[in-house]
Design a protein that fits this description.
By secondary structure, this protein is α/β, with parallel strands linked by helices. It is built from 6 helices and 8 strands. A hairpin with a 4-residue loop joins strand 5 (about 170-175) and strand 6 (about 180-195). The longest helix is centred in the last third of the chain and has 21 residues, at about 230-250.
């Protein structure tokens, strides 16, 4: 199971971060962020280069690859939506050979009045996908076809973070030379209603609790490396204490942003 998190730049009040999909525990991602920050401090004496580099990517894992896509060699956003695209949809009747594929592509081009001059080139690319389907059942195990995110659309901020899914957060503070650690998935007594409108028009209503994150530690990067196991236990204890506090004080100042959110969420599953 993935343990989602993020790594960002800023202060506890204002920060911008990038997503991390797995193993975001302090013992893994936390120590990784700490050691990476230390490398930049030793090399540059500051974290400005670290900040510029991180915010130029879409995902924390790109820090280790310098943003170089392992599949296409581009220096761009994190690869995703890895799949095969073929010109026909009938996966139950795939071409048995490349020549069979060429015949199908020519028939398709003729049917739709398209120019058939690129058929051989298209067939060469698509045959690799079809062979993968024949041999593995998966269209694109080598990720020949994939997409990349734009860094400008990858930003996670205090206003957009979904703490129900973000279990840990790490914010590097360049001015203070500090690392702020957050524990997410913290339950609050604030609730809202989810209204599902099914494709047939029927409705279902559910009451859900809102979740938040809480700052558990601020670590000085100029001090010795923390004991990450102890820090993890302390963070869980702190989160449990905040849950208990908020259960008796739902009007706590830290919960005001959640209280200001709409009391109902409508999820319309009807087409169009």
């Amino acid at each position: 199971m993935s343990t989602r998190g993020f790594v960002g730049i800023g202060t506890p009040d204002h920060w911008e971060a990038r997503y991390n999909h797995w193993d975001s525990y302090p013992t893994a991602l936390g120590t990784d962020v700490w050691h990476t920050a230390q490398q930049f401090l030793q090399q540059d004496g500051h974290l400005q280069s670290f900040a510029q580099r991180l915010l130029g990517f879409t995902n924390w894992r790109q820090m280790a690859t310098d943003g170089l896509c392992e599949y296409c060699g581009q220096r761009t956003g994190q690869p995703h939506s890895i799949n095969g695209r073929i010109a026909f949809l009938d996966r139950d009747h795939l071409p048995a050979s490349r020549s069979d594929l060429v015949r199908q592509l020519r028939a398709q081009a003729k049917k739709f009045g398209r120019n058939g001059t690129s058929i051989l080139t298209d067939a060469a690319a698509q045959w690799a996908i079809i062979e993968n389907l024949h041999h593995t059942g998966y269209p694109d195990p080598t990720a020949l076809y994939h997409q990349h995110d734009d860094p400008t659309s990858a930003a996670i901020t205090p206003g957009t973070v979904d703490w129900l899914f973000m279990e840990w957060g790490y914010i590097l503070d360049p001015d203070r030379l500090a690392l702020h650690v957050y524990k997410g998935c913290v339950a609050t007594p604030i609730s809202y209603e989810q209204l599902f409108i099914r494709p047939d028009g029927q409705t279902d209503r559910y009451t859900q609790h809102r979740y938040t994150g809480t700052l558990t530690h601020t670590l000085a990067l100029t001090e010795p490396e923390p004991d990450w196991d102890s820090l993890t236990r302390e963070a869980h204890t702190h989160a449990e204490a905040m849950e208990a506090l908020w259960a008796g004080h739902p009007d706590d100042e830290q919960l005001r942003p959640l209280q200001a959110l709409p009391p109902i969420q409508i999820i319309d599953q009807r087409a169009g």
